[in-house]
Task: inverse folding
């Protein structure tokens, strides 16, 4: 395995790339949670405009570490990772061309060649710089963030997913480290399309059996049981709805829904013991799912808007993937469920804002009594 000194991705500090981007400093990994393993990140500055941006360099060494002992040779690994990088770039270019404003899109890209390293090439992408990701916001600030900010942020993320769906991209890896916060919390955007699927560009990570390549910590339960939805639109909705609902849960509990479900499941039904289909396991998963929600409920009971949010989360994360989405009046799941979710979240944000105004008026009145 390469150490950091032998890895060109760690050697960009102080360089000027493409005559435009001065590489200021490396951005350290956050101590908590997942994400960021496959990239080395830097803060960069456009020397013409002085504007700060964010650079993500492909970290080949992380892939060698991952494949250590797998029998793959270096050339194969480099080829695979180059394909993955080109794929992510193609999706990002599409988002940029369509001006998707709730998806963290690319500003520039390139490849720097640094002499003196075993692998001298460092492919990189440059993005608008965020304040950070959701982990730092939620975990570092703990309970001090108001409910309406969280709901507005979720509303932005639902918009981001809908924008991606409109250009035939299914995110598939929504989780706290892939939610980016911009302009002092004013806007939240969906980031990291590295594990996404696209209807008309084959993903290098798609193994043809459902193609889920996101972080399994946040994956919908059926993925663990080999459930395979052949219809592309349905697959896109089912996975992204679950991951969105699960993320919404995380905003208010910092608990991961998938682990909450598996904790409630009898070990004999766990995927590593189970020999049957997801269909056969579903009644048990559904039971565990309801028990998980009993644990989560108290976090949502403190506010009327959150009680409604919990209902929405349940619609998004139904243990039966075919039943995810908000029901219409005729009780069928909507074909474009994110539209309904976006309107509902807009409404809930306003509701939470007016509750907050009322509460603060009440407390200032009792203070002046
Ligand atoms: N535009 C950005 N501005 C600031 N920080 C970012 C930006 N994009 C990503 N990050 C940070 O870098 C981490 C890794 O980036 P990400 O795109 O998720 O790559 P990876 O594939 O390595 O997970 C994110 O979790 C986030 O903390
Ligand atoms: Mg990530």
Result:
């Amino acid at each position: 395995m390469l150490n950091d000194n032998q890895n060109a991705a760690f050697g960009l500090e102080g360089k000027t790339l493409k005559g435009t981007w001065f590489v200021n400093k490396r951005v350290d990994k956050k101590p908590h949670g997942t994400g960021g393993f496959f990239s080395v990140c830097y803060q960069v500055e456009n020397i013409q405009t002085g504007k700060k941006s964010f650079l993500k360099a492909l970290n080949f060494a992380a892939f060698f570490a991952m494949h250590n002992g797998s029998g793959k040779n270096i050339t194969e690994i480099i080829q695979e990772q180059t394909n993955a990088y080109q794929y992510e770039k193609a999706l990002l270019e599409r988002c940029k061309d369509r001006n998707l404003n709730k998806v963290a899109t690319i500003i520039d890209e390139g490849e720097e060649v640094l002499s003196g390293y075993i692998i001298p090439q460092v492919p990189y992408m440059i993005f608008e710089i965020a304040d950070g990701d959701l982990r730092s916001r939620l975990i570092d600030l703990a309970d001090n963030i108001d409910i309406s900010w969280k709901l507005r942020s979720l509303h932005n993320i639902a918009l981001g997913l809908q924008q991606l769906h409109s250009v035939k991209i299914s995110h598939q890896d929504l989780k706290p480290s892939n939610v980016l916060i911009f302009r002092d919390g004013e806007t939240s955007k969906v980031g990291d399309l590295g594990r996404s699927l696209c209807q008309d560009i084959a993903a290098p990570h798609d193994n043809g059996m459902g193609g889920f390549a996101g972080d399994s910590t946040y994956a919908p339960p059926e993925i663990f049981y080999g459930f395979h939805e052949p219809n592309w639109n349905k697959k896109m909705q089912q996975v992204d709805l679950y991951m969105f609902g699960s993320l919404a849960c995380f905003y208010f509990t910092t608990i991961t829904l998938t682990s909450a479900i598996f904790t409630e499941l009898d070990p004999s039904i766990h995927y590593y013991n189970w020999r049957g289909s997801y269909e056969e396991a579903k009644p048990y998963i559904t039971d565990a799912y309801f028990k998980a929600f009993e644990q989560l409920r108290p976090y949502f009971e403190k506010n009327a808007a959150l009680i409604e949010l919990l209902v929405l989360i349940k619609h998004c994360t139904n243990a039966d993937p075919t039943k995810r989405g908000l029901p219409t009046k005729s009780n069928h799941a909507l074909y474009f469920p994110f539209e309904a979710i976006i309107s509902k979240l807009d409404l809930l944000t306003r509701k939470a804002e007016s509750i907050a105004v009322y509460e603060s008026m009440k407390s200032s009145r009792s203070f002046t009594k």
